[in-house]
Write a structure and sequence with these properties.
By secondary structure, this protein is mostly helical. The chain has one domain: DNAb Helicase, Chain A (Orthogonal Bundle). Helices cover about 75% and strands about 0% of the residues. It is built from eight helices and no strands. Helix 2 packs across helix 6 and helix 4 packs across helix 6.
Length: about 150
């Protein structure tokens, strides 16, 4: 619940925007995003709506992915975000692949950090309730998440 209601950091928001921008402009980048991320990696509501559509449909025959997304997104706020991202392409071509990799790493790291925080909260609650078995299981889950 905390993850849904907490506002993502500006670093995460910028990574989401950059990933959406690159993936909506280039099928090669979209394929990479589909391979490395899932909808759960996106934190903001608008980015999740765009990612949900982007990751769920095969766009191999779609000439202009960005316009397809704009036409088929049900969420007006997501459409507004995507439209704004489509009009500005401020990224140097030679660095786009590296930038995409960096943004993917940011989202993956944020997801792991969020999972770890969630497990820590559950451990505290289990300890406070005197549920030592559950706390031990959660501690094991935390250890495997960290390693």
């Amino acid at each position: 619940l905390r993850r849904i209601t907490a506002k993502p950091s500006s670093k995460v928001l910028e990574a989401e925007k950059t990933i959406i921008t690159l993936a909506s402009q280039d099928a090669q980048f979209l394929a990479k995003v589909k391979e490395k991320l899932s909808m759960e990696n996106f934190n903001s509501q608008e980015a999740r709506a765009i990612a949900s559509l982007m990751l769920s449909i095969d766009f191999t025959n779609e000439a202009n992915l960005g316009h397809f997304l704009l036409e088929n997104l049900p969420d007006e706020a997501a459409k507004k975000l995507l439209a704004g991202l489509m009009v500005k392409d401020h990224l140097p071509k030679e660095l786009k692949n590296e930038i995409l990799d960096d943004c993917i790493t940011v989202l993956k790291n944020e997801r792991v950090r969020s999972k770890i925080e969630d497990i820590k909260q559950k451990i505290k609650a289990a300890e406070a309730a005197g549920e030592s078995q559950k706390a031990a299981e959660l501690l094991f889950a935390l250890k495997s998440e960290i390693s």
